[in-house]
Structure formats: structure tokens, C-alpha cells
């Protein structure tokens, strides 16, 4: 009976045991990236006022799906171009786009029917496409966080789709992958500091600037006590979920080579065990730094985002650094993020976490990685020679800084074009009336919270209460 279930396979190498081991590994990493989206949602659900919580969840999920789905259309094919170029495939750009866009043969054909001489490790690369979609979903979820409680759904969806479908893939091609143009010259990344965090940070800065602050954020407003978190317990739960999901997700940012070891995505020599230790060490350093700031300023938010500050701030170093180095880098990262937040507050930019974490922490991460990994070998691809020989390039601060400059310029120009265009056409911001009554009621006809949102309200997070008073005191 069993023999009847054994079907002939055209190319058995594509579905070998080792191939399936890698498939399972990257599939788990993909699931954990999706859990990161959930963690970001929980953090935001606690930071917004109750009258906006339902809409926050709906917008975040749709933004994540749009960004991830848009990336699958042609974004993954853009990233694949680097390997086609490294392998000397004729018309590398056209062939990569033809093979790996959403309707291409490598995406629509079962791996056992693809010739490994033409499409090696097809099954693994197909699973990696799902990993990239989850990566794009994280970008969409983070971008949504920059416009909480005031940006309309339509422009938010357009921003997520364009960023996830075009801008993030282009930066992935340039900076993430062992044969990418900048990596192949010495730029080093691991968790996507350039292509995800710095890009999102720049777009978030432009969005928060053009949308303006929420009513009552910096100046008193007669209709509201201002945007104060209604339940930091939700945010704390989101941080815990993030701590569980991120290690497995980030370990997917590398190559497993049986018999040779684990290599970072830029072809740096690493170790699965050391990378795992480093990730948790970044939680310790960032969390302790955030806790010091939180107790010093009586601002509980920093105690929560310190963990994220730690792993983002050491994101380019996690595969090459020693645990004690990661502890120091992540500890300092919390203070960099806090300094960025204070700078934004001075310029009346209403964003407490995305720009400080992604842009401030991301730039710091890139520069710190150049110091921690200074002299380590990187770039190239397995089995190649010449300009793409494995580990022919060297990590150094200069190339890391150049990578930051290129990323900020590309993200800045594209972000300004897209967000200004949306501002001048469909508009970015909800009406003041809808903002005051709450987006749950405005969009979904959900009943308003049982408490008013005025200056005299006793609703937790409405503008009064112990936590609100402390936050107001800190921010003033």
C-alpha cells in the first residue's frame, strides 16, 4: 500500500533530507517574523487610547499584509538579481525578474520539477520567499506605528505597499545578501538594519513630520487630554512576545552549511550558538539601559522599548560580535534611542518609538557594526572566484557609514515623493472631529469608551491619572 504513495520525482536533489531540514528552519523563522508583527500590534494596542484600539489592529494587519504581499510580486526577484549577477547568468536582471516574480516559473513550479542545474535549492529559495513576505509584513507594521491615531487608512495602505513592494526590496538588493553590490565591497548587515530599520525610520520620520502631532500631544487642546497610553500591560506583553519570537526570526538571517557551519547573510563566519547567545545578550544590555532611563525619568515606556533598542542597536553585530561586546553595544543603544526621542520631542515630532528605534538605533547599529566587526571577512558566494570569491571583502567603519548614507538618501528621496504626493492628493490626516471622537467609532461604528476624553476625564490614559501626569512631566 505504501508503494502506491511513492510517486516518481524528476529531480530528487531538490527534495533531499538536507533540503527539507533547511525548509523547516526557514519556515520556523518565517512564523516567528509573523509573531513579531503581532508583538508590534500588542505594543501599539497598549500605547494608543482605548477609542482607537480596534482601528489600530485593523490598520496594522492590513498594512502588514499589503507590504508582504507587494514584496512577493517582484520584490523577491529584485533581491535575487545579486546572485544571478554573481553566478554570471546572461541578462541577470531580466532573468532573475522573469524567474522569481509572482508568476515566474520558480514561484509557480513544484521544486522537484525544477532542474537543480538551473534552479539550485529551489525548495529552500521558495520557502525563503515566504520569509521575505513576513519581512515585508514587519516593515508595514512598523510604518503604521508612525502614524498612530491620526493618519487615514488609505494613505497608510499606499505607503505600506510601495515601501514593501519596491523600496525595501531595492535596499535588500543593495545591502542584504552576500553578493549584494554594497555587501560585496564591505558593508555588513545581519538582521536587516539598512533595508528594514533605517528605511522604515526615514519614512516614519517624514510621515510623522507631515502628518503633524496628535491633538494635545504638545499643546493643550480643549477637546482632549492628549495621547497617553491606556494600558501599558498590553505593551509589556508585546515586548515579551517579541523576546520569544525575534531570536528564531533573526537566526533565519544566515546560511546553514552542513559540515561547514553557520554563516551570516553577508557570508561572515559565525556560529549558530554564539548568534543565539548574542541575541539574548542584546536583550539584557538594552533592557538594563532602558530600565535605568525609565527609573531616572519616571517614564515606564523606556523600560519596555529598551529591549528592542538593544537588539536593533546591535543588529549588524549579532553574527560577528562576542557576547560581552554585544552587551556593551546594546547597553549604549538604549541611550542613543532615548537621545533620539528627546531630539524629536524638541522639534515637536510626535513619534515615541519608531523613529528613535529604527532610525536612531539603526544608524547607531550600522556604525557600531563597523567597529565590532572591523577586519572580519565578508561578501562573495560559495564556490565562486574573483570579485565574488567567498569572504574577499573586509568589514570596516567607512563602508558601514557609506551604507548608511546610501540608505538614508534613497529612503529620504522616495519617502518625500510618496508621502508628499499622498498629502497633496488624498490627504494624510483624519479630521479633527474623527480624531477626537475616536477612530473606532469613526471607521467601525464601535461604541465609544465609557469615559469622555476631555481634560477632566478619569479614564486611564485620557490625560489625567498618575502615569499620565508623570509622562507629561517628563515630556515637558
Outline the structure in words.
This protein is mainly alpha-helical. It has a single domain (14-215, 230-426), classed as Ammonium transporter fold (Orthogonal Bundle). It has 16 helices and 5 strands. It has a 3-stranded antiparallel beta sheet. Strands 4-5 form a two-stranded antiparallel ribbon. Strand 1 (254-257) and strand 2 (261-264) form a beta hairpin. Helix 2 (53-86) runs parallel beside helix 6 and helix 6 packs antiparallel against helix 7 (193-211). The longest helix is centred in the N-terminal third of the chain and has 34 residues, at 53-86. The chain is globular. Mean pLDDT is 91; it is low at 454-476.
- The CATH homologous superfamily is called Ammonium transporter AmtB like domains
Terminus-to-terminus distance:
75 Å
β-strand number: 5
Overall CATH architecture = Orthogonal Bundle
Contiguous runs where pLDDT drops below 50 for at least 5 residues: 454-476
The share of residues in helices is 55-70%
- At CATH level 3, the topology is Ammonium transporter fold
Overall geometry comes to: globular
Number of helices: 16
Compose a concise summary of this entry.
This protein is mostly helical. It has 16 helices and 5 strands. It has a single domain (14-215, 230-426), classed as Ammonium transporter fold.
Amino acid at each position: 500500500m505504501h508503494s502506491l504513495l511513492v510517486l516518481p520525482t524528476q529531480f530528487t536533489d531538490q527534495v533531499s533530507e538536507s533540503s527539507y531540514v533547511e525548509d523547516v528552519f526557514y519556515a520556523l523563522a518565517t512564523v516567528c517574523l509573523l509573531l513579531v508583527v503581532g508583538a508590534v500590534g500588542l505594543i501599539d494596542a497598549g500605547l494608543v487610547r482605548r477609542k482607537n484600539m480596534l482601528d489600530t489592529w485593523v490598520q496594522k494587519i492590513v498594512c502588514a499584509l499589503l507590504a508582504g504581499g507587494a514584496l512577493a510580486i517582484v520584490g523577491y526577484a529584485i533581491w535575487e538579481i545579486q546572485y544571478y549577477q554573481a553566478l554570471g547568468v546572461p541578462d541577470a536582471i531580466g532573468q532573475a525578474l522573469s524567474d522569481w516574480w509572482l508568476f515566474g516559473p520558480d514561484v509557480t513550479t513544484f521544486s522537484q520539477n525544477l532542474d537543480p542545474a538551473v534552479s539550485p535549492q529551489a525548495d529552500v529559495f521558495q520557502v525563503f520567499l515566504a520569509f521575505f513576505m513576513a519581512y515585508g509584513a514587519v516593515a508595514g507594521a512598523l510604518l503604521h506605528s508612525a502614524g498612530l491615531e491620526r493618519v487615514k487608512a488609505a494613505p497608510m495602505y499606499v505607503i505600506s505597499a510601495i515601501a514593501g513592494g519596491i523600496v525595501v526590496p531595492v535596499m535588500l538588493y543593495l545591502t542584504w545578501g552576500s553578493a549584494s553590490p554594497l555587501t560585496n565591497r564591505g558593508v555588513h548587515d545581519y538582521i536587516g538594519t539598512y533595508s528594514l530599520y533605517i528605511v522604515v525610520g526615514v519614512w516614519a520620520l517624514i510621515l510623522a513630520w507631515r502628518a503633524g502631532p496628535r491633538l494635545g500631544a504638545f499643546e493643550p487642546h480643549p477637546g482632549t487630554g492628549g495621547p497617553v497610553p491606556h494600558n501599558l500591560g498590553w505593551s509589556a506583553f508585546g515586548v515579551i512576545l517579541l523576546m520569544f519570537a525575534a531570536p528564531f526570526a533573526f537566526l533565519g538571517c544566515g546560511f546553514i552549511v552542513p559540515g561547514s557551519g553557520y554563516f551570516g547573510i553577508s557570508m561572515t563566519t559565525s556560529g549558530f550558538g554564539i548568534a543565539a547567545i548574542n541575541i539574548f545578550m542584546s536583550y539584557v544590555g538594552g533592557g538594563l539601559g532602558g530600565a535605568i532611563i525609565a527609573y531616572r525619568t519616571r517614564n515606564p515606556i523606556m523600560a519596555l522599548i529598551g529591549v528592542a533598542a538593544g537588539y536593533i542597536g546591535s543588529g549588524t553585530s549579532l553574527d560577528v560580535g562576542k557576547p560581552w561586546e554585544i552587551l556593551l553595544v546594546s547597553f549604549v543603544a538604549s541611550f542613543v534611542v532615548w537621545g533620539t526621542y528627546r531630539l524629536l520631542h524638541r522639534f515637536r515630532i510626535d513619534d515615541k518609538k519608531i523613529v528613535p528605534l529604527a532610525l536612531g538605533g539603526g544608524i547607531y547599529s550600522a556604525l557600531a557594526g563597523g567597529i565590532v566587526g572591523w577586519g572580519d571577512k565578508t561578501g562573495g558566494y560559495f564556490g565562486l572566484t574573483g570579485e565574488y570569491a567567498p569572504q574577499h571583502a573586509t568589514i570596516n567603519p567607512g563602508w558601514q557609514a557609506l551604507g548608511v548614507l546610501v540608505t538614508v538618501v534613497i529612503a529620504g528621496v522616495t519617502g518625500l515623493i510618496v508621502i508628499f504626493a499622498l498629502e497633496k492628493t488624498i490627504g494624510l490626516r483624519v479630521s479633527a472631529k474623527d480624531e477626537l471622537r475616536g477612530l473606532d467609532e469613526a471607521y467601525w461604528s464601535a461604541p465609544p469608551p465609557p469615559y469622555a476624553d476631555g481634560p477632566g476625564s478619569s479614564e486611564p490614559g485620557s490625560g489625567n491619572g498618575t502615569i499620565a501626569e508623570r509622562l507629561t512631566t517628563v515630556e515637558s
